[in-house]
Description:
alpha+beta, CATH 2.40.50.140, 20 strands
Amino acid sequence: MPQTRRDPAVLEAWQDPDARPFLEIRKVTKVFDGSTYAVDDVSLSIFKGEFFSLLGASGCGKSTLLRMLAGLERSSQGQILIEGQDITRLPPYERPVNMMFQSYALFPHMTVEQNVAFGLKQERLSATVIRDRVGEMLELVHMSEYARRRPDQLSGGQRQRVALARSLAKQPKLLLLDEPLAALDRKLRERTQFELVNIQERVGTTFIMVTHDQEEAMTMSSRLAVMDAGRILQIGTPSEIYEYPGNRFVAEFIGAVNLFEGRVAGSEGDLLIIQSDAAPGEIVLYHAHPLTIGTPVAVALRPEKLRVLNGPPADDRNWVRGQVREIGYLGDVSVYHVGSEQGMTVQVQVTNRARRTAGPLTWDDTVCLGWDTESGVVIPA
């Protein structure tokens, strides 16, 4: 996430065995039409003040889970608790939860301040409280000067801020965000990611966001859960998910990755030796837990972990050779697809440190690529 003011010496709530979860999802399942499992036996603990993301492709169940938290869908089984209170069967209006929809759902005939005040008027709060709360929320999202405008007089980013202000005005304990930045263009979306995180930190409300955008989830989240086919496959901080994927799906879904298939051939202390038909020599990596010789595994290597070598390493370990087949110039980095001698396409990412119009490699160049023993992750097949 945008690295803010977290003290690395202090345990995060999810690292503290004595901390009590703010939100508990216990073995929740949602079945449609008697046989379609949209959410399948999901359990999850989220702590107060987190910016938590549910990440997955369309149809993975993340939006259904979000709607069950909001009370817009009823679970087929399981429990949902907020601060120990079972809210599983409570209607939406009795939950300390608010939801910000992808479409923003602003009332077109109302001004900005009227939109923000709408939920407060429904609660029959006093005019003074409403005025003060609306003013506070508009100041929070930097929209005070647009208070008298209507939604059609605002840009996409401004409408997104108004929707956020309206969602926070009722001071929910939990705010749910359904693809909140999907309607924004790339540059505005990137800027708004940081603004949302800063606002969340200032108000202290627990946020749960649904998104299919990996970069968005990685940038904004304190932790995230990767979902597929209604199940949670891995939970962790963005760096944990990226650097230590727990299975093949997560490794392939989060960012780009090279997967070398092979079998465990032995070990040397903390090093695991892997024989792979995709590499000319042995692949040797650090691995915390011993694996039986012959165990099928995949070695996951991110493109930025590879480097261009002058030639084959003397120990004949952790390298491949091939020809450059494709080049992607992205400004700050260049991505090369190298067709290896073993028939695999290997991706390598090179930082463009020097200013030049051509990269260090070009099409059909023969290159050797290598990596360090701590660069890859071993994933059991």
